[in-house]
Amino acid sequence: MIIVLLIATLFPFLYMLLLSVRPIEQLLQDPGQLWIAPSEWTLSTYREVLTSVDNGGQGFLRFLANSAMVSLAATALTLLVAIPGAYAVSRLRFTGRRQVHFLFLSVYLFPSILLAIPLFVLFTRLGLRGSLGGLILVYIAQTVPVSIYMLRNYLSTIPESLEEAAAVDGYSRLQTLRKVVLPLAAPAVMANALYVFMIAWNEFLFALLFLVEDRADWTVSLGLAQLSGGIEVSKTVLMAGSVVLTLPIVIIFFAAERLLTEGLTAGAEKG
Amino acid sequence: MSKRPLTLRQRESRAGLAYLSPTLIVVLVVVVLPILWTIMLAFQRIRLINLRRAGVFGEYTLSNIELVLTSPGFWSSLWTTVVYTVGSTVGSIAIGLVAALALRGRFRGRTLVRASVLLPYVAPVVSVTFVWTILLSPQFGLANNWGARFLGWDRPIAFLSQREYAFDLSFFGLFSWHLEIPLALLTVIAFESWRYFPFAFLFLLARLQAVPQDLEEAARVDGAAPTQIFRHILLPQLSAVIALLCVLRFIMTFNKFDDVYLLTGGGAGTEVVSVRVYEFLTARFDVGAAAAQALVLATGLIVLLAIYLRFLAPRVEGEE
């Protein structure tokens, strides 16, 4: 059973990897062959996918840079916004706390296509379409509620007495947050950062709506989707593109698997 | 003018709101206001060209809603959405349950295996849909090639672009049925179940590990069969999580856009409402109609949620 599960989940990824190193003629000749000898492998697919358009390639290096920039900016800004927010939700009693909770839940579960319409219209009007900044803003709004949820769960496990002690020592609330709470919450913040990064890196719909016009703005996801529709680029080259898109996520995921799954399922036992 | 000093409680309340304000502003600007605007757009005749004229006090009309409800293909796309959502929800939870039961024990390489199983869920949607399209491609896909080689298919099956697939099923020549199945839709459902079973798996595994061991052992000592243990001991423990998963997966799949769009572009009987909204928005530039459809989608969701909350939720909440 375990073997069956593993094959079912991993096979497409393996297939992706194997196809990406196959010469295209070889694939067209014998599509049913899964394994070819390593001596026949080619890395020219990767060369083509990464070389810039000016030099006859597909320019994925540029897309990678775009994706990295958008995702990193979204991650940093989300944390900046979400950390104080999570602290407030977990520690401070304020009026409207329950409503805030409900608001976040609805953001999390709302159809993003519904948001897409006005944002598409608004960004068209403001001339923000084609700007990475607009995209980053959308990503922040989409990830902040989940971030606050993840961080809140963690923050509420930190004993309150620590903060009281800090207050006695004359720390202001902001100092306490920065010097006492944040270092303790570092693993949760890390997990959350990676999670936000993954969401932003994988996102497709908003990238498609906002960035599709100018190739120079494309993210890797968008570039791959746009190029795979045509016939000009060979499938093996695009498979190399898929590997390039997937690899950072796989690396991050395996490096921080424990942190990530714990962050995601915190509270799952409660039902 | 002397102000009364704030009480501790008031100060805390202020600090709370202050710390939360960046979040609230972002959510308000990028989520809440756009939603309100969508609702307004849905009741105005607006295309992208005449958008400039549209304002808060534009002409309000029900014509979009009427247009949407009577337009050809809307009801069938709503039906497709429901079938796709229910199928994918059930599929992903069922596989997730099997996976959680299979991987909960101790075995060598457990951590690595458990992590690997999560890959479909964390990998970028564009690359996984792309791999599936290639894998199932009639020209150079492995599935069709192997199907012809090992299963004796006489011609390639276009999994993602064929609406109906007809075949005859017979049992030893005794009975014979002529069956037609919505092939592309089933393929999309299969993909969705594959991609999201790890989500169910994670939640179910976490819950399974909290089930007290001695209960199961006692049952085993009493000679209960594995299926009995599952039905009478594990399933009751899992029911709350499964109910929660059903709701979460249902909502998320109901709204899903990218998976279907990337796999089939909404063709071959897989046009779900969100893909239709996208088409209206980008191909026809009919903002009003797009908004109206999105609104119908959201309303449908809210109605279903309300039904759920009314009839099922108390049980789930009781577990907390």
Automatic annotation (TrEMBL), chain B:
Membrane topology of the entry = Multi-pass membrane protein
Q: Does the keyword Transport apply?
A: yes
Question: Which parts pass through the membrane?
Answer: 20-43, 81-103, 115-135, 169-191, 233-252, 287-309
- Superkingdom of source: Bacteria
Any keyword Membrane? yes
- Give the record's GO biological process terms: transmembrane transport
Family as reported in the entry's similarity comment: Belongs to the binding-protein-dependent transport system permease family.
Xref: InterPro entries: MetI-like (IPR000515), MetI-like_sf (IPR035906), UgpAE/MalFG_permease (IPR050809)
Q: State where it is primarily located.
A: membrane
Q: Where in the cell is it found?
A: Cell membrane
Q: What is this protein called?
A: Putative ABC transporter permease protein
ABC transmembrane type-1 domain boundaries: 78-308
Alphabetized PANTHER family for the sequence: BLL4140 PROTEIN, DIACETYLCHITOBIOSE UPTAKE SYSTEM PERMEASE PROTEIN DASB
Keywords from UniProt, A to Z, are: Cell membrane, Membrane, Transmembrane, Transmembrane helix, Transport
What organism is the protein native to? Actinoplanes missouriensis (strain ATCC 14538 / DSM 43046 / CBS 188.64 / JCM 3121 / NBRC 102363 / NCIMB 12654 / NRRL B-3342 / UNCC 431)
One of the record's GO cellular component terms: plasma membrane
SUPFAM superfamilies reported in the protein's UniProt record: MetI-like (SSF161098)
